[in-house]
Amino acid sequence: MIQINMRIPAAVVLLFLSFLSSAMAGSAVDVEAPWVREAPPASTVLAAYMVVKNTSDTVHTITRIDSPDFRDARIHRTVVEDGVAKMLLVEQLQLPVNGSITLEPGGLHLMLYDPQRPLRDGDSVTLVIHDSDGGSITVTAPVVRKTGGHDHSHHH
Amino acid sequence: MSTPHASSISGYILKGVIIIILATVAGILSARFFLHSSVVEDELAATRFPVAREVKPFALVDHDNAVFDNAALEQHWSFLFFGYTYCPDVCPTTLSVLNSIAQRLQDVDADIRFVMVTVDPERDTPERLAEFVTYFNGDFLGVTGTDQGLEQLTRQLGILYERVQPEPGSEAYLMDHTAAVFLFDPDGRYHAVFSPPLSVETIAGDFRKMLQDYQ
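ok -> structure tokens follow
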């Protein structure tokens, strides 16, 4: 399966992906402003952030977000309890009716383990968001350098 | 005969009670005044000690393999953060905040250093720390050491850290760690602490005030 995929020219894959995303345009779950924080060269763990929206009148549950660009991915929540920062594993994201959940620095985030290739500012990664009803949406997230200094501003 | 005597006793008691009430009221008022005035005087989001605290001896090593001990905190201001490099969210976010603070305080006439001390010395070698901290700012310093050296510093600052069991299917462990940023003055004393959530504006503003008071 992987071998077959590898032989398909990138343009065809892109065409397929764009078809996929347009086919999902009417989907209840939508993702806005996804981005991955560029990590220092030695890092093997990264974090992705995004706004996951539910545009329907029924509750939707995100059971998993994964990425073919990483060995593993898990949804975590950073909490500070009595001054101590902890990361908690989040089993699922329950999206309120016509509402959204925001993954942002210092809070909910997608922890990404072991990138398959070096990822630098300007690169992009694929994220697949899985709905409990079996559906999924695929989004492309830019890798963004954020060091608090003279960073480029790719997203708004 | 007994009546005037009794009335004078009750008069004394009455006077005594009035004096006690007045003294209590005066005490409460003055306490409120002084407490209130000390809060107004400080106006800091940071917790600053009335008298900066002496740091007991400790010995660690920086990312250039140089000794990082009490002397390394002297002659300049130091912001210390305690984190680790296998940390995808809190630590990069905090180092970004510290870098923003560094940019914002460039005009200040004081030598300011920014240091991340690892709470994960087992994985965070000096080389790994160097790559991690200098990614955010070339002047940032990473510090590691032995478990014992780390405890010498963290215990007296009340810093907590703990290795968390890896999640099922994952071999990499995470660390819980105190998220605050600690400030040391040029005497090498523990001067103040900034508790999360960490704000660039607040910390930079507080630092300017503390610098003024120190000079």
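Chain A touches chain B at residues 37, 39-47, 72, 74, 76, 78, 80, 83-87, 89, 105-106, 109, 111-113, 146-150 (CB under 8 Å).
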